Amino acid sequence: MLWTVCVLCMTTLGLMFLLKKLNQPYLIAYIITGILLGPNVLKLFTSPEEIEVVGEIGILLLMFFIGMEINIPNKKSLIIKPLLAQGIKIVLSLLFAYCIGKLLDLDYKSIVLIAMLFTFNSTAVVVEFLKKHGTIHTAFGIVILNILLLQDLLLAPALTVLKFWNGEKYNFFNFILPLAVCIAIFFIFRKIRHIREIGFSYSFIENDRDLQVFSGLFICLGFGVLAEVIGMSAALGSFIAGVLVGKMKAFHWLEHSLLPFKVFFVSLFFVSIGLRMDIPYLISNYKLIALGTVVVLISNSIMSAIFFRLLKFKWKDSLYGGALLSQTGEFGILALSVAYKTNIVEYELYKAGLGITCLSLLFSTIWISIGTIFKGHKNIINKDNVNAGFKYD
Fold it and tell me: Pick from 369, 309, 300: which is nearest to 133 by CA?
């Protein structure tokens, strides 16, 4: 184990230094590390599922940090626009998936699964670039973040549909409870959006680093578990915890205490994506996988750019947003896994979908860098930031 971890750190470090020179995000290093150390190359890791389970904690921590960083938007447009955008994207995804299904003669279940893959994007990739390009503090950035949060809300009904197709008994309560909780959360957020700080103090924690670390992890992961039990996504639960904790002065130490954990676990999640890539299958079916990856990146970019433009954003912002939302995300991988394990899709379609998803995550970083050319500039702080909903450093 010690030897394996050392090789993992050494490989990741080497790739990170290279990417730093090329001014590219470290997510690429994590995915390539997984490919190199996986069962098809150096064979240091032979069970991607084990690392994936641990790596999913990183997604919860990432959502928790996002929740701590933002304030609840005051402008109705910052709430309504994401709802309209995601609705338009779902309709366009269904239409595009239907065209692909007719072309390849797929059944309706496979068509709906393809539509799900187009619906979900990678929160980790998008947030990384929003921060890197200085757009996370703008109204445009908040719209994109809210779109990603809506996708988290859609995960539970999407997985319920997949389980229902597998023959599991339909339970109306599984739809009502998450909906009721979401409505309750909406009213709680509406109540506290004007509150600058919630008075809450535990002085005995402030000077005890051990208590800080485990208290923070319990809050983040505990809300994730609670959300999953209710029927929502665990990532959304951690985000809600982050929003509430961000309002409490007594927990301002959490960000500093948990940051190393976030970096480590997020990296493991993307290493697990690299481990999942079946290199022999990709090589033997390179034409299908390459074409599928290009189709995903371009079609997702076009669909996203269209709905941004319909929401009255400028063309350069719309094209940039289209590039940001070009990939299929981590929830798409989860939907694929559930569909395969429940015999909804065949092995070939599962492998092809997994390869296309992984490559779309890998190459979307390059695609987004190209998209910044349309944006024209970085580190944007403009009049749209006023009351946009983010705290300023």
Answer: 369
User: What does the alpha-carbon distance between residue 180 and residue 183 come to, in Å, rounded to a whole number?
Assistant: 5
Domain coordinates of the chain in residue numbers?
A: 57-258+284-385
Please report the DSSP string for 156-182 in residue order.
HHHHHHHHHHTTPPP-THHHHHHHHHH
Give 57-258+284-385's CATH code, choosing from 3.40.50.1820, 3.40.50.1100, 1.20.1530.20, 3.30.70.2730: 1.20.1530.20
Half-sphere exposure of 215 (CA within 13 A, CB side): 18
Confidence category of residue 15, pLDDT binned at 50, 70, 90? very high
Given a cut of 80, whether residue 111 has pLDDT beyond it is yes
Alpha carbons 249 and 196: distance in angstroms, whole number: 10
User: How does pLDDT run across 69-96, given as a tens digit for each residue?
Assistant: 765 655 665 668 888 888 888 888 889 8
Question: Residue 214 CB: number of other CB atoms within 10 A?
Answer: 12
- Tell me the C-alpha distance between 297 and 301, whole Å: 6
Q: How far apart are CA 65 and CA 337, in angstroms?
A: 27
CA end-to-end distance (rounded Å), the chain: 40
Give Rg (Cα) of the chain.
21
Which structure tokens are listed for 63? 């959502």
The model's pTM:
0.78
The SS3 of residue 70 is strand
Instruction: Give 23's DSSP letter.
Output: T
Integer Cα distance of 58 and 64 in angstroms: 10
Helix (H) or strand (E) holding 117: helix 108-119
φ, ψ (nearest 5 deg) of residue 382: -125, -170
Say what the pLDDT of residue 316 is.
85
DSSP sequence for 36-48? HHSTTTT-S---H
| Beta-bridge partners for 155 | none
Residue 13 has pLDDT above 90, yes or no: yes
Nearest to 236 by CA among 310, 305, 152, 173: 152
pLDDT of 378 above 60: no
Element at 91 (helix H, strand E): helix 77-104
Give the separation between CA 258 and CA 67, rounded to whole angstroms: 14
Angle (deg, nearest 10), helices 123-132 and 254-276: 120
Q: Which amino acid is at 206?
A: E
